[in-house]
Amino acid sequence: MSTATIIDGKAFAESLRTRVGHVAADFTAKAGRKAGLAVVLVGEDPASQVYVRNKGKQTLACGMESFEHKLPADTAEADLLAVVAQLNADPAVDGILVQLPLPAHMDEAKVIATINPDKDVDGFHVVNVGRLATGLPGFVPCTPLGCVMLLKDKLGSLSGLNAVVIGRSNIVGKPMAQLLIAESCTVTVAHSRTKDLPEVVRHADIVVAAVGRPEMVKGDWLKPGATVIDVGINRVPGVEEGKTKLVGDVDFGSASEVAGAITPVPGGVGPMTIAVLLRNTIVAAHRNMGLALDEGVL
Ligand SMILES: Nc1nc2c(c(=O)[nH]1)N[C@@H](CN(C=O)c1ccc(C(=O)N[C@@H](CCC(=O)O)C(=O)O)cc1)CN2
């Protein structure tokens, strides 16, 4: 029987977008223009197309300007870099995001390095990675920041808690660990080579699963009452012939019998990603225009 509290990321994301909308309206009144987010999509990856469409819709719904740049899959890297350079120079653009993954012929690190760090609302530029690691103000990747928002909303202070992050990607695992360190957690980063992962996870008050393996984390790995944040988005065959379903990196059925609180998939961490992107964009707009903002209201 499921006894865990379900952490409703969809509802939290909606309330964050409402707060962003109020701040965006205030920005428009003060700056005499709307804040602007540019999203660049290269290729026709179906999931990326959905994410980019949703980013555009939600940007407009929050009262900000949305600029979409869709480039064919065979675009030369130099042409993509030229688009980014043009967005860097455009005063109407406060935030720039290049949707990942990029086609295989492109060097993601090189493309990200071309974005002006002060417009890098994804927080992927090495300057922002360094700012996060050293506690300086910058931009923090959207998914991990969304996870921390959900954790603090559920638990209040995270200070002194044991956190295990499963996964060491630049987008989620590493920044997640940095953010939890900043919240004074004791952090372990586990990954595919970790020995006896269930034993490592068993000591965690907080488990963040971002490993990309469907339903890998089982209920009997968890410390009873642990808070489980599932970042996984895996499409697997459904019960009906030819249909698929979305599952996380956590086996929700068994984990929800042991955890104290858990994010579902879908409807947990996923919706926070775009809401935090909008938050980062309105923060960028204020910083770039030299306008004061109490970021605590977001
Ligand atoms: N430049 C970036 N690229 C990518 C990022 C990113 O943060 N920046 N993250 C992901 C994709 N992503 C946003 O870009 C994203 C992923 C998932 C969701 C979401 O709302 N998920 C839903 C389920 C959606 C579905 O049905 O497929 C959920 O979990 O409830 C939003 C955004 C990779 N690329």
From TrEMBL:
Binding site for NADP(+): 167-169, 233
Protein name: Bifunctional protein FolD
Pathway membership: One-carbon metabolism; tetrahydrofolate interconversion
Domain annotation Tetrahydrofolate dehydrogenase/cyclohydrolase NAD(P)-binding: ranges: 141-288
Keyword Amino-acid biosynthesis: yes
Any single GO BP term: L-histidine biosynthetic process
Tetrahydrofolate dehydrogenase/cyclohydrolase catalytic domain mapped to chain residues: 7-122
Domain of life of the native organism: Bacteria
Keyword entries, A-Z: Amino-acid biosynthesis, Histidine biosynthesis, Hydrolase, Methionine biosynthesis, Multifunctional enzyme, NADP, One-carbon metabolism, Oxidoreductase, Purine biosynthesis
Catalytic activities: (6R)-5,10-methylene-5,6,7,8-tetrahydrofolate + NADP(+) = (6R)-5,10-methenyltetrahydrofolate + NADPH; (6R)-5,10-methenyltetrahydrofolate + H2O = (6R)-10-formyltetrahydrofolate + H(+)
GO molecular function: methenyltetrahydrofolate cyclohydrolase activity; methylenetetrahydrofolate dehydrogenase (NADP+) activity
Similarity comment text for this entry: Belongs to the tetrahydrofolate dehydrogenase/cyclohydrolase family.
UniProt xrefs under Pfam families: THF_DHG_CYH (PF00763), THF_DHG_CYH_C (PF02882)
Gene3D superfamilies noted in UniProt: Leucine Dehydrogenase, chain A, domain 1, NAD(P)-binding Rossmann-like Domain
GO cellular component terms attached to this protein's record: cytosol
InterPro entries: Aminoacid_DH-like_N_sf (IPR046346), NAD(P)-bd_dom_sf (IPR036291), THF_DH/CycHdrlase (IPR000672), THF_DH/CycHdrlase_cat_dom (IPR020630), THF_DH/CycHdrlase_CS (IPR020867), THF_DH/CycHdrlase_NAD-bd_dom (IPR020631)
Enzyme Commission (EC) number: 1.5.1.5, 3.5.4.9
Main function: Catalyzes the oxidation of 5,10-methylenetetrahydrofolate to 5,10-methenyltetrahydrofolate and then the hydrolysis of 5,10-methenyltetrahydrofolate to 10-formyltetrahydrofolate.
